[in-house]
Amino acid sequence: MEMGMNTHDLLLIKLETQEANNNYQILKSEFEKIAGVISVTASSNIPAVSGTGSINLGIGEREIVRYNYISIDTNFPETFGIGMVDGNSLTRNHGSGFLLNKSAVEELGLKNPIGESITLYSGENGNLTPSSTGVVVGVLNDFSYRPNYDSSKGAIFNVNPADFNAMFVQISPADQPKTILELEKTGKDLFDDMPLSIHYLNEEIENDFFIQKLYKIRNLILVTSIFSFLIALSGLLGISILTIRKRVKEIGIRKVNGASSEKVLVLVNGKLLKTVLVSVLISFPVSIGIGHIIKSNQTNGIALSFLDYSIVFITIVTIIAVTVSWQSWRAATRNPVEALRYE
Predict the structure, then answer these.
(1) Is this structure's pTM higher than 0.90?
(2) In the chain, fewer beta carbons within 10 Å around the N or the C end?
(3) Pairing of strands 156-158, 65-71
(4) Which of 48, 135, 136, 125 is nearest to 84 (CA)?
(5) What pLDDT does 93 receive?
(6) What is the rounded CA–CA span in Å between residue 333 and residue 131?
(7) Rounded alpha-carbon distances, angstroms, from residue 72 to 38, 60, 243, 322
(8) Nearest-CA neighbor of 5 among 83, 91, 87?
């Protein structure tokens, strides 16, 4: 699928700690000395994987709006092969310069974006104060900075290293395993107590796309499961009613002979509830296994404990037991004389 950027031969290193963020420039400088490294850059999000931040901005005299915001290093567009529509890319000389993508120019209604004054605001709505001011120096082609290969939304870009969360290393196609080992060694030599996780950006994008598909499948399964559960519940209720009607005389005779309501209830529902329990015991480990597979492909997923699964299954069994026992309890507590008269 077209993403508007080149992600081949790009490695991803997540800057997951403040220490890693603080040492980005040192890492970049040392990595660029490695023979197989072509370029090193960074941004506040992982393109096509993670969402963006947002910021309050005002353009000229226009109304202040909340807008998608991404902090990038100056060479980010070149490293990702993102072309310029107009103007120039960011440089250190631009200071508080900004880039917009094509969608942002259209969404914000800018006819001549280059040179437009932009003010960023901090604080909450109603209590906003200007935090920085700059001008638009260039317009980027749209690219998939959002998950699901979505390149249809506008965004504003500037250089703010404090917001960098991910580093990207473009490497030569030749002898990539050796280059990766060199990167790992350099990182370890520089910061032994700060291990770096290095893997291909395309792998991260593919994993995220797979997870997004899983979520869609999960939602579909959730809806169908609810309907299936309600249909199954109706079926169990029907079976329970049919069973009771067939055994009205038997229930009456047992009650006359001194059987308690509880014993009659167990007699009527025992076989049905055993079947339900067997199905639950089969589905329990399957559900845990599927949950573990989904969690293993997420970086920030929440793992469900054994207790969480237990509560769900106990709730399901309770609902089923109450549903099928309702008619059975009515029959078990009914006057046996009426039951025998009915027969």
Answers:
(1) no
(2) N
(3) parallel
(4) 136
(5) 64
(6) 75
(7) 18, 23, 69, 58
(8) 83
